[in-house]
Design a protein that fits this description.
Layout (H helix, E strand, L loop, with lengths): L3 H4 L7 E2 L4 H11 L3 E5 L5 E6 H9 L10 H4 L7 E2 L4 H11 L3 E6 L2 E7 H7 L2 H13 L2
Parallel strand pairs: 1-2, 4-5
Antiparallel strand pairs: 2-3, 5-6
Helix pairs in contact: 5-7
């Protein structure tokens, strides 16, 4: 079974926790992504920021994205996967935490992101279908 390291996207760009959400949104648009890892000054992962977070937690509440930092939306410890964890562990973790993207950590270093699409490309159809069902059933 493939490992996270083998199926991850490895060119990951972080948003700094002190960057405002307007900057984050522009960066997402430039990169063509819907989520960015939030990294601190120590280059450690602080959380994940999604385009949905910006819309639901900021814009929908009438807040100005230029006045909110990425760090303000980092909630607790980020759900991650180890670089050498196998696809079965990736599926379990995504399903348990109902997430579609997992930062991949090697030691304390962020080395990539595994998305549902990465898993789908590397595994047979049924486990991916089970994952989508697990992620979607409680949403």
């Amino acid at each position: 079974m493939p490992t996270a390291r083998e199926i991850m996207t490895n060119d990951v760009t972080c948003i700094r926790e002190q960057d405002d959400l307007r900057t984050a949104a522009k960066q997402m648009a430039q990169l063509g992504v819907g989520a960015l890892p939030i990294c601190g000054d120590d280059n450690r992962l602080k959380g994940m920021l999604t385009d949905r977070d910006i819309v639901v937690k900021v814009i929908a509440e009438g807040r100005d994205p230029a006045g909110v930092t990425a760090g303000e939306l980092a909630q607790g410890e980020a759900v991650t996967i180890g670089a050498d964890d196998d696809a079965a562990e990736i599926l379990r973790t995504m399903g348990q935490h109902q997430v579609r993207r997992l930062p991949v950590i090697d030691g304390h270093e962020l080395v990539g992101i595994v998305a549902v699409a990465d898993v789908a490309r590397s595994l047979p159809e049924r486990p991916v279908g089970d994952l989508i069902e697990a992620i979607s059933e409680r949403s």
